[in-house]
Fold this protein.
Amino acid sequence: MIRVKFCGISSVEDAILAEKLGADFIGVVSDTVSPRYVKNEFVKIVKRYVTKPVVTVKVKGELGKILEEGKEADFIQIHRVLTDEELQYLNSFRRNIILYVPASGKFETYFRKVVSSSNYMVLLDKDNENKVDLYVAKKWINEYSKVGIGGGIKPENVRDFLSLNPYWIDISSGIELYKGKKDPSKMSLIIKEVREWTSIR
Ligand SMILES: O=C(O)c1ccccc1NCC(=O)[C@H](O)[C@H](O)COP(=O)(O)O
């Protein structure tokens, strides 16, 4: 079964609906760079209403601060490319971490460093310049079992991503009515596509 993370959730109402519809992970972006920004305290509030793991997404800042601020979340997704020193530092903590890796051949060395440093979940995603390279993504998904994929997934193209057989898929903007507000019908469509895809395989 391919798991589903709905990300960029910014209200309790959307979190409850995401879980009800069948999301496996509830993602919130607790970084001010995002138009979907929610405060760190939001994680604690959401966890009162959902049983599925809550992922807090962080981009900027020193790793020690990120880990401290994300302590209420079940997973911390660090959404930037880390330095060697940062990867080494992160290794000394026992936390559920999701590490972002741009799905582009340029990041092959970085991908290998990430998967050899610890048992992290990995999110293959677009970067500022490039869309997800599905060919590269397929290769990496086949090599390491805990690789998920995101970056422009929507109901119309989700099958292209499911065909790579990732550990999970990550969707935010493709299921929105507007930034920070989810569209129930698009969320349902994604879940329907995933279930259909899984049932015929
Ligand atoms: O959502 C944001 O605004 C955001 C800002 C900065 C870093 C990460 C951000 N979101 C991450 C996600 O929503 C997902 O983990 C993933 O990138 C999929 O997003 P999308 O391409 O919008 O489906």
User: Anything to note?
Assistant: The two ends are 10 Å apart (CA to CA). The first strand starts at residue 3 and ends at 6. DSSP finds eight helices and ten strands in the chain. Strands lie at 3-6, 25-29, 54-58, 75-78, 97-102, 121-125, 147-150, 168-171, 176-178, 181-182.
